[in-house]
Amino acid sequence: MGVLSPNRDLAEDVGSNRYRVRGSRLTVLLFTTGKIVVAGARNEEDIRFAVKNLLEELEKHEIM
Predict the structure, then answer these.
(1) Cα–Cα distance measured from residue 44 to residue 64, given in angstroms and rounded to the nearest whole number
(2) Measured in whole angstroms, how far is the alpha carbon of residue 37 from the centre of its chain?
(3) Mean pLDDT by 10 residues, the chain (64 residues)
C-alpha cells in the first residue's frame, strides 16, 4: 500500500520528488513549492487514493 518504489529507499525518493504508488499506475510528483501532481489519475478517486497513500508513507517515516 505504500508509495515508495520497492527498489528505492526513502532518501532517493525524496531527492527525486517522485513516488510510485504500489499496485497502481499512479505516480505522485512533489514540488518544492508544495504543489502535487498525480500522474496517471483518471478520476478524483484515483487522486484521493494516491494522496492518502503518500501521507501514510510520509507519516510512517516521520517526515510529516
Answers:
(1) 23
(2) 9
(3) 46 62 88 86 95 89 80
